[in-house]
Specification:
Chain lengths: 517, 316, 354
C-alpha cells in the first residue's frame, strides 16, 4: 500500500493513493491575486511541504483547504471525491485539521478542558476529566509529553503546539495542515516536532507543512511544492531538488528580496539612552515575569533580546513603554528616571515604542491616518484648546510620501490599511518625534517579506542616525541579522549576553536555559 | 444583653432577603462567564415578579408562579441575547434598554394587580411546627428551620452552578466563550448558541429571584417592586469574582445589610429615607473595594466580557 | 434549507446609515404600537398621540418643547461620556440633585433677577457635578464600573428628594401632599405662551458648546481616542484620569443645569414621583443621545423627536388611563432596535438556498 517511491510510475497509477488533489485553484483579494491556477497533489503517508516566501500564497491555500476562504475557481478532491468545504467544521468532518501559526487555545483553562470542548465522545454534562485517559493514550503513542491537567497558560509555545496536535488526533485527522509551525521553536523543539510528525505519517495520516525555510523543507519532507507569487513553480519529490535550485525557485530572480542587509558597525557609540536597572515586573496573574533584569542601550547600537515566547519579553517591553507597573528597579530614558510614570513622560524623554500588538497599542483603527499620526504630539497641532486638523493633514501627506504608506489619503481609517502599512504608519509617527531610543517588540510579526525588509531598514537607519534600538524579538533570525549585541531572556532573567559574531547554536541553547559557563 | 429574638428575626430576614440576590447574582455569573453582560437583570426580575403574582393567582400554586416567572425572565434575557449575541449590539446599552422595557411593561400591565393579596398562596414554611428546644435557642433555630423551600433551594443552586460551570463540558464551553470566542469557535464550540444558552439560563435564575421577591418576600405586586435589587445583583457579580459560591456569600452579606436597614427603621433616630440608601451605598463601596482588590490580586473578569462576537464569513 | 451568510460591509455610505437608523427607529415605535394594540388600545389613537398631534398641533408642540429642552441638554453631555466609552446613566440623579440645589438657592438666597436665576442655575450645575463626582473619581482612579455606581447614585438621589419633600422642605400649605413651597418669583424663568423660550436658547448654546468640545477640541480628540481604543490612547500618553473626570464633570453639570432649568421655569417646586422635576427624562436623554449617533448637532432633532414622543406617551397615559411605564416601554423598545441596527450597518446578510 504505502509506496514512498511511487512517483516514478506516473500519476495515473497512483490515483488511489492521492489523498488531496487541488486543481486550477485561483483566489483574488480585491485587485491582488493570491493564488493563480494552483495544482497540488498530496499522497497518503507523506509529509508534503509547501515552500515559499511570505506572501507567496501558502497560508491562503491552507485556509481554502480548511474552509476559511472560498476559492474563486478550481476543484478540490479529497480521497478522489470532489468536496465543497465551506467552513472549518466541514473540513474537520472530512478529517482535515489546520494547526495555525499561533496556538488557538483558551489560556485560563486546562489542557483537558480545552480538548474536551470539541470532543464528540463526551456528553454535555460530563466532566472534561473523562478525556484525560484518552489524552494520555495519544501522548504515549506519539511520544508527546503534555500534562493534560496543566493550565494552558503555564505551557511553553511548543507544548501548546503539541496540544493542538493532540486535538487533531482526537478529531481523527486524516490530513493535518501545519502553518509555519517552527517559527517560534528552538532547534531542539523543532526536531521533537518533526519526530512526532513522522510518527503521525507512519500511522497512515498525511501532512501538509507550510514553511518559508528551505533547509527545513529538505529536512522533513517527502515531497516539496514551491509556491511563488501565487503560482506553483515546482512540485516534485524532495530528492529531485538541490539546495541551490530550491533557493532559486523560492526567491525567483527578484534580487531585491534576496538581498541580505549586513549591518556594519556604524559610527561611534553615544551615551546610554536606555538604562534598565534590576527591573522586576509582574505578569497578569501576579507572578514574577521579569526578574532583576538590567539592560543598557547606547546611542548608535541595536541591542537584541532573544528568547522563546512567554519568557517575560512582553512584560519587559510593556514596562519600558509605561503600560505595566514596575515592582522594583528603575528605568531611565536618556538619563531621565521614568520608572513608574505614564507613557507621556517616556516619549517626552525620547522613547519611541513599536508595540507587538500594533492594533491594540499602536493605532486607533477607527481614526484616520492623519489623526493616528498625531496621536502622541497632538499638543503641537492645537491652539488654545482647539485642535487644528488641517496642519495634521499636511504632516500626514508628508509622512505618507516619506514612508511610502499605501493609503487612499490622510482621512482614510487606519483599520482599512494592511498590516505592513499600519506598521509603517507607527514607525513614521514615532520617528517624527526624533526619539533617542526605539523599543521595538516583534516589529515584523505577520508582515510580508517586503514590509519586513523595510522595517529592518528603518531600524538600521535609526541606529546610523545615532539613536539606540532595543529589539525584542522572538524571531531569532531577525535578532541575529540586526543586533550589535544580543541578550537572551529565559524565565524572566537575562541568561546570556554576547556581541556580534554570536553562534546560533549558543543562542538557541541559552533560549532553553542551557548556558555553558 | 443581646436580644435573642431580635437576632433570630435578623437571621430569618437575612436568609429570606438573600434569595432574590443569590438567584439573580448566580444567574448573572453564568451569563457573564459566557462573555455577555446582561444589564437587563432589573428588568428581567421585575417582569418575573409580576408574572409570578399573576400566574400564582390564576393557578393557585406558587410553584407555577415561580417557574413561569423564571421562564419569562429567561425570555426577556433572550431578547437582550438576540440583540447582543446574534446582532452584536452594544451590550451595555441593550441591557439598559431591556431594563426599560421590563419596567415599562410591568408598570402598564401590573396596574390591576397592585395590592392584590396572595392570601394563602405564598410559599409556606417547610416545618411550621414548634421546635423542642430551650427558649434561648428557639428564635435562632426557627429562623433557620421555619423557612420556605425556596430559601433552601437558593443555597443549593450556586453549588449546582459551581459543578455546572467548572466540572462539565458545557460549563467549559460557556467559560471558553467568555475567555476567547474566536478560539472557542475554532475548538468546536458554537459560540452563538452557547452564549444564548448562558443568557437564557442566567435569565431563568434571575427570573426565579424576581418571582420570589413578589411571592416570597413582599407578598403582592407593587409597582417598582425591585427598586434596584437587580442592579445590586449585577454589582455583586464583580464582588463574587464570577464564582457562584462567592455569589452566595456576597448575597448574604448584602442581605444582612438590607435586613439591618429594615430593622433599624423606627428604632433609631435616622430617617427611613436615609436608611433606604444603605444597600445602594453599600454596592458602591463594594464595587470600589473589589476594584482595589482586583488591582492588587490581578484577578479579572472573563477576558472577552462585553465583547461582541460575530461569526462572519470572509468575502469570497 | 436556507443558509444565511454574514458578510462584513466595507465603505458604508452615510445615506445608507441614515436610512438604517430611521428604519430601526420606526421598527422600535412599531413594536410599541403593536404592544399597545395587544393591550386593546386603538393603534390609530396611539400613532395619533405619538406623531400626528405633536407635529400638527401647536398646543402639543408647546408641551413637547418642555421635554425637549432637558432631554437635549442632558443628551449633549451624555454623548461626550459615551464617546469616551464611559456608560454613565446617572443623569437622572444628577438632574434631581441639580433641581434640589437650585431649589435650595431659591429658598435661602435673596437676590434680584436676573442674578438670582444665574446664581441658582450655577448652583444647580454644581449640584449635578457633586452627584457625578463620586462615580467619576471611582472610574478615573480604580476603573469602577460606572454603569452601576451612577445608577446607585440615582436611587440615592431619589431617596434624598423623598426625604426633603416628606421632611424638612414639605410645605404646610400643600394639603398633605409631599410638595415644597413654590420658589420665590425672583427665581423663576418666564415662559412665553407656555413655551420655555429661554430654556430652548440655553439648549442651543449647550449644543454649540458640545459641538466645539467634541469635534474641535483637544479634549474631544482624547475622548474619541479613548472611546475607540483605550489601550492605544493610554499608550499614546493621554491621561485616562483627565478624560474621565472632565467628560464626567461636563455631563453631570449639564444634567444639573437641566434639573435647575426645569425647576425654575416649569415646575417651580419639588414633588414626588408623578410630579417630580426629573420625570424620568434623565433616562429618556440616554435614548436621545444614542438616536443622535453621539453627534452633537444631531441632538437637536433627536431631542425634539424624543420630547414629542414623551409628550405623546404621557398623553396616552392620561387619556387612556395607563401608567408611567408607557414612556419607559417606548424608550426601551426604541433603544433596543437602534443598538441592534448597528449590525445591519456593519454586516449584510446573504440568504441562499442550499
Amino acid at each position: 500500500m504505502v509506496n514512498q517511491t511511487s512517483f516514478l510510475h506516473g500519476k495515473s497509477i497512483l490515483a488511489k493513493d492521492v489523498v488531496l488533489s487541488v486543481s486550477g485553484l485561483s483566489k483574488r483579494f480585491g485587485n491582488v491575486v493570491a493564488l493563480r491556477n494552483v495544482d497540488l497533489e498530496l499522497r497518503s503517508n507523506e509529509i508534503h511541504v509547501l515552500l515559499g516566501e511570505n506572501g507567496a500564497g501558502k497560508t491562503t491555500l491552507a485556509n481554502i483547504i480548511y474552509g476559511i476562504y472560498r476559492p474563486d475557481s478550481g476543484v478540490i478532491k479529497f480521497f478522489g471525491k470532489e468536496v465543497d468545504i465551506r467552513s472549518p467544521k466541514d473540513a474537520i468532518s472530512y478529517g482535515i485539521v489546520l494547526v495555525q501559526q499561533y496556538p488557538m487555545l483558551i489560556e485560563r483553562m486546562t489542557v483537558a478542558e480545552n480538548l474536551a470542548l470539541g470532543f464528540k465522545g463526551l456528553g454535555l454534562l460530563t466532566s472534561p476529566k473523562n478525556i484525560i485517559r484518552v489524552i494520555r493514550e495519544v501522548n504515549e503513542k506519539y511520544g508527546i509529553s503534555v500534562d493534560p491537567e496543566a493550565l494552558v497558560s503555564s505551557l511553553s509555545f511548543s507544548e501548546k503546539q503539541q496540544v493542538e496536535l493532540i486535538r487533531a488526533l482526537l478529531l481523527n485527522v486524516k490530513l493535518l495542515i501545519l502553518d509555519e509551525p517552527t517559527t517560534m521553536l528552538t532547534s531542539y523543539e523543532r526536531r521533537k516536532l518533526f519526530t512526532i510528525l513522522k510518527k503521525l505519517v507512519s500511522d497512515g495520516r498525511s501532512i501538509l507543512l507550510i514553511t518559508h525555510k528551505v533547509l527545513e523543507a529538505l529536512e522533513v519532507s517527502d515531497w516539496i511544492t514551491v509556491l511563488r507569487r501565487g503560482e506553483v513553480v515546482a512540485s516534485r519529490p524532495k530528492d529531485m531538488y538541490s539546495v541551490d535550485e530550491l533557493v532559486k525557485l523560492v526567491v525567483g530572480d527578484n534580487s531585491e528580496l534576496g538581498s541580505v542587509i549586513s549591518p556594519s558597525k556604524g559610527g561611534e557609540l553615544g551615551g546610554d539612552v536606555l538604562e534598565v536597572k534590576d527591573l522586576v515586573v509582574l505578569n497578569d496573574v501576579g507572578g514574577v515575569a521579569v526578574n532583576k533584569v538590567s539592560i543598557s542601550v547606547r546611542g548608535g547600537e541595536i541591542v537584541g533580546i532573544a528568547g522563546v515566547t512567554g519568557n517575560g519579553q512582553k512584560e519587559l517591553s510593556e514596562a519600558i513603554a509605561g503600560l505595566r507597573k514596575v515592582r522594583s528597579g528603575r528605568i531611565l530614558i536618556n538619563g531621565v528616571d521614568v520608572t513608574n510614570k505614564g507613557p507621556s513622560s517616556r516619549f517626552r524623554a525620547g522613547l519611541a515604542y513599536i508595540p507587538e500588538e500594533r492594533l491594540k497599542y499602536g493605532v486607533v483603527g477607527d481614526m484616520s491616518v492623519a489623526e493616528n499620526l498625531i496621536l502622541k504630539d497632538y499638543d503641537r497641532f492645537s491652539k488654545f484648546t482647539l485642535l487644528k486638523l488641517s496642519d495634521a493633514v499636511k504632516v500626514a501627506d508628508e509622512c505618507i510620501k516619506a514612508f511610502n504608506i499605501v493609503t487612499r489619503g490622510p482621512s482614510e481609517k487606519v483599520k482599512a490599511l494592511s498590516g505592513g502599512n499600519i506598521q509603517k504608519l507607527i514607525i513614521a509617527r514615532e520617528l517624527r518625534l526624533n526619539p533617542k531610543v526605539v523599543v521595538a517588540h516583534n516589529p515584523t510579526l505577520g508582515l510580508d517579506l517586503r514590509s519586513t525588509s523595510i522595517v529592518h531598514e528603518y531600524l538600521l537607519n535609526i541606529k546610523y542616525s545615532g539613536s539606540g534600538v532595543l529589539l525584542i524579538s522572538e524571531d531569532l533570525d531577525e535578532v541575529i541579522k540586526l543586533s550589535d549585541r544580543v541578550l537572551v531572556m529565559y524565565r524572566g532573567g537575562i541568561v546570556y549576553e554576547g556581541v556580534r559574531g554570536f553562534s546560533r547554536e549558543v543562542l538557541e541553547r541559552a533560549m532553553l536555559g542551557i548556558v555553558d559557563v | 444583653m443581646i436580644d435573642i429574638v431580635l437576632i433570630g428575626n435578623f437571621i430569618f430576614l437575612t436568609l429570606k432577603n438573600a434569595v432574590p440576590l443569590i438567584l439573580a447574582t448566580t444567574g448573572e455569573v453564568i451569563t457573564e462567564r459566557s462573555g455577555v453582560i446582561n444589564l437587563g437583570v432589573e428588568g428581567c426580575m421585575i417582569v418575573a415578579a409580576l408574572v409570578g403574582v399573576v400566574t400564582t393567582l390564576l393557578s393557585g400554586n406558587y410553584l407555577v408562579g415561580l417557574l413561569l416567572g423564571g421562564l419569562v425572565g429567561a425570555l426577556l434575557a433572550l431578547l437582550h441575547g438576540l440583540a447582543t449575541v446574534v446582532f452584536g449590539a452594544n451590550q451595555i446599552v441593550s441591557g439598559i434598554a431591556t431594563t426599560m422595557v421590563g419596567l415599562g411593561i410591568t408598570s402598564l400591565l401590573g396596574r390591576g394587580y397592585v395590592g392584590r393579596s396572595l392570601l394563602g398562596l405564598r410559599p409556606s414554611p417547610l416545618y411550621p411546627y414548634d421546635i423542642p428546644l430551650p427558649d434561648y435557642l428557639k428564635p435562632l433555630a426557627s429562623a433557620i428551620v421555619k423557612q420556605d423551600v425556596v430559601v433552601y433551594i437558593s443555597i443549593i443552586i450556586p453549588i449546582l452552578c459551581m459543578w455546572f460551570l467548572f466540572k462539565t463540558k458545557l460549563g467549559g464551553a460557556i467559560r471558553a466563550c467568555g475567555e476567547n470566542p474566536v478560539v472557542a469557535e475554532s475548538l468546536g464550540v458554537d459560540v452563538v448558541r452557547t452564549r444564548l444558552l448562558a443568557v437564557g439560563l442566567g435569565g431563568f435564575l434571575v427570573g426565579l429571584g424576581g418571582a420570589y421577591l413578589s411571592l416570597g418576600i413582599v407578598g403582592s405586586w407593587v409597582e417598582n417592586i425591585t427598586a434596584g435589587i437587580g442592579w445590586v445583583a449585577v454589582g455583586l457579580v464583580a464582588f463574587s469574582m464570577w464564582v457562584p459560591l462567592r455569589a452566595l456569600l456576597a448575597s448574604y452579606m448584602m442581605a444582612s445589610l438590607i435586613s439591618i436597614s429594615y430593622m433599624l427603621q423606627g428604632r433609631v433616630g435616622i430617617s427611613s429615607y436615609f436608611l433606604s440608601m444603605i444597600p445602594y451605598i453599600a454596592t458602591i463601596a463594594i464595587l470600589a473595594i473589589v476594584s482595589v482588590e482586583r488591582f492588587r490580586l490581578r484577578l479579572g473578569a472573563p477576558a472577552a466580557l462585553g465583547k461582541p462576537y460575530i461569526r462572519e464569513e470572509r468575502l469570497g | 434549507m436556507f443558509r444565511v451568510k454574514v458578510l462584513r460591509r466595507y465603505d458604508v455610505s452615510s445615506r445608507f446609515k441614515l436610512i438604517t437608523y430611521l428604519t430601526s427607529f420606526i421598527v422600535g415605535i412599531a413594536f410599541f404600537v403593536l404592544f399597545e394594540a395587544l393591550l386593546g388600545t386603538n393603534p390609530y389613537e396611539v400613532v395619533d398621540r405619538l406623531f400626528i398631534r405633536p407635529l400638527t398641533s401647536y398646543d402639543d408642540f408647546r408641551v413637547s418643547i418642555r421635554y425637549t429642552v432637558p432631554i437635549g441638554i442632558i443628551a449633549s453631555g451624555l454623548l461626550l461620556v459615551y464617546r469616551a466609552g464611559i456608560y454613565s446613566i446617572g443623569a437622572e440623579g444628577q438632574m434631581a440633585v441639580g433641581a434640589v440645589f437650585a431649589a435650595w438657592a431659591a429658598y435661602t438666597l435673596s437676590l434680584g433677577s436676573p442674578t438670582s436665576v444665574l446664581v441658582a442655575l450655577s448652583i444647580g450645575m454644581l449640584g449635578g457635578i457633586i452627584w457625578g463626582l463620586l462615580p467619576a473619581i471611582l472610574k478615573a482612579l480604580l476603573n469602577v464600573n460606572e454603569v452601576l455606581t451612577t445608577l446607585m447614585m440615582n436611587f440615592i438621589a431619589y431617596s434624598l428628594v423623598d426625604y426633603l419633600i416628606y421632611g424638612p422642605w414639605r410645605s404646610p400649605k400643600s394639603y398633605g401632599f409631599p410638595l415644597t413651597e413654590p420658589i420665590p418669583t425672583a427665581f423663576t424663568i418666564p415662559t412665553y405662551e407656555g413655551i420655555p423660550v429661554i430654556n430652548f436658547l440655553v439648549l442651543l448654546t449647550v449644543v454649540l458648546f458640545t459641538y466645539v468640545v467634541a469635534r474641535m477640541s483637544k479634549l474631544g480628540f482624547q475622548i474619541r481616542a479613548y472611546g475607540l481604543n483605550p489601550s492605544a490612547a493610554y499608550a499614546s500618553g493621554m491621561s485616562f484620569f483627565k478624560v474621565v473626570l472632565l467628560s464626567f464633570i461636563i455631563s453631570s453639570a449639564l444634567a444639573g443645569l437641566a434639573g435647575a432649568l426645569q425647576l425654575l421655569s416649569i415646575h417651580q417646586r419639588l414633588g414626588p414621583k408623578s410630579w417630580s422635576v426629573t420625570e424620568g427624562l434623565g433616562y429618556t436623554a440616554i435614548v436621545a443621545a444614542w438616536i443622535s449617533r453621539l453627534e452633537p448637532l444631531a441632538v437637536v432633532p433627536a431631542s425634539l423627536l424624543m420630547g414629542a414622543l414623551v409628550n405623546g406617551g404621557l398623553a396616552i397615559k392620561a387619556v387612556l388611563g395607563q401608567s408611567e411605564g408607557v414612556v419607559n416601554l417606548m424608550n426601551g423598545m426604541i433603544l433596543l432596535s437602534i443598538v441592534a441596527a448597528e449590525f445591519f450597518i456593519n454586516y449584510r446578510l446573504v440568504v441562499r438556498l442550499r
